[in-house]
Amino acid sequence: MRYSIETIKSLTYDGLRPFCDQIRALLIDNFSEHGGHVGSNLGTVELIVSMLKEFDYHRDYIISDTGHQSYLMKLLTERPNVFASIRKTGGLSGFADKYENPRDHYISGHGGSGVSACVSLVEALKRRPDASRVICLVGDAAMAEGLALEALNNLTAAGHSRLILVLNDNGWSIERNLGNLSRIFGSAQTSESLFNLLGFGYVHCADGHDLHALAAAWEEVHRLDGHTVIHVRTVKGRGLPVAEADTRRRLHYTDPFDPATGQKRQTFEGLIRFVDVNAAALCDLRREDERVVAITPAMCGGNGLDVFQDEFPESFFDAGMCEQYALASANGHAIAGNIPVVALHAAFLPRAFDQVFQDICLQNIHAVLLIGRSGFAGPDGPTHHGVFDLSYLRCLPNLTMISPRDGNDYYRAIRDSVEKAKGPVAILTPHAYTVFSPELRNQSLPPPAAIEHVSAGEDLLILCTGVTYSEAMSLRDKLSDKGQSVGVAHIRQVKPLDKALLRHLVTSYKEVLVLEENTAIGGLGSELALWMKQEDLGLPLKHFAVGDCFYPHGDIPSLREMSGISHAKVFEKVVFGI
Ligand SMILES: Cc1ncc(C[n+]2csc(CCOP(=O)(O)OP(=O)(O)O)c2C)c(N)n1
What we know:
The protein has 23 helices and 19 strands.
């Protein structure tokens, strides 16, 4: 059977049962081999198939909020190499992507933005004579994003066009979905009242895996006119026992895994993720000081906080998919005398930039931001790369910024920021595995230098920071092999820069090279270039940074090659000028 919309249209709802079963088996096979957003996609098989049956894909507008549940859409809209290439360098995106297929209309990846696009689209279309339907698929967690709620606040009565909001309610965000909205969604009655008040008709489907129940619900949707919510209950991870039994995350996302046990196929012996240091450091700090609280916007596991949540549930706050509240809530905790530590991915920080500005830096509160996945995020692609944070954070007064070079350094950075800092501190770490020595936890060490001269030389000084530390060291090795005398200095404290130390360092070399995994605009290199000019140091400076464009998804080494900041690319440029 061809996986196409035509096949779906040609089958009855009875005939779609084996079709859905076949698709689910195919998904499981492929997820186990390639990894991906397992739980979310397995839970929406029947729902997406029924949406494609009920609507005209080529005429209606079907937009997925967040877009992580769009694998099936890709398969059924016959994109090449759907599974083998998703999230791989040069392959299909793991999210909805209008450049891949214009009928996706939108590039999703961040929660709540799809709802906004759909509300504004329907507002724009509703006075046009041609009736159109705008169908927005949104999860129960993404529905709580401020952006989604702001959009609903702006929805006016339907005209020629109407909005059909497909609320895929599985009770889960990445972890269990919490909050008052999720409680309201728990009952059809309270959900109906809420959506009626917001201007929607309401249809409830109690079992989103029962194709006949879905068919009946769609019939009701078609009978209504005006904006309509179809509230569909689904089971995240449906059909894969290890996903359904995963009480922590319903296998929301995983790397390639064994479908029988759920075990990941690849392990990294002796290394841990940078974010895993979060729990070690925060548990130690919380044991010593009960004012320490950890806050995360729906990213507990992704920020390594499971252990902290288990040990100190009363000091752990999952703000849901609400970055703005998560960051703003640091202020309330500070007023109450707590020491708030907010852990999130760099990609989602821009959504709450105003809170970092107004609620944290302007008010100079003692809050610590643990910003993971700074630099290239890898297979999640342009919506998730953290290559702008150095630029947009560096401009905020009062903020101290630290980029540790490994897990041990990161542990100390968290400890010092919580124990000794007086104002806001942002610590940026890459999406990478790193070393960590647990014995460090009991040692008291002298404070690290703001800039560490890790390797001395005479001709060229490579200045790197955090994420680029390992590339800088490899570059030094390659250039030293060519007979150059190269030193490396790691800028651990990115802001404020220790200019006296920096002056002392750079003036003992003939040339300076800055390597950063951040946009060239407004990053470290541009600050250093300006400073060297103002100080009249007369030293040549080479700057390697991410270009002024959006980089696609792919593995991180390929992205570094592509953007010219890998040690191999920089070496070619420095030695051969190419
Ligand atoms: C603005 C933003 N914050 C955080 C995330 C990370 N994230 C991806 S999916 C997800 C949970 C989505 O839950 P839900 O919308 O209910 O969909 P489900 O996966 O349960 O189908 C989160 C928090 C994101 N994509 N965008």
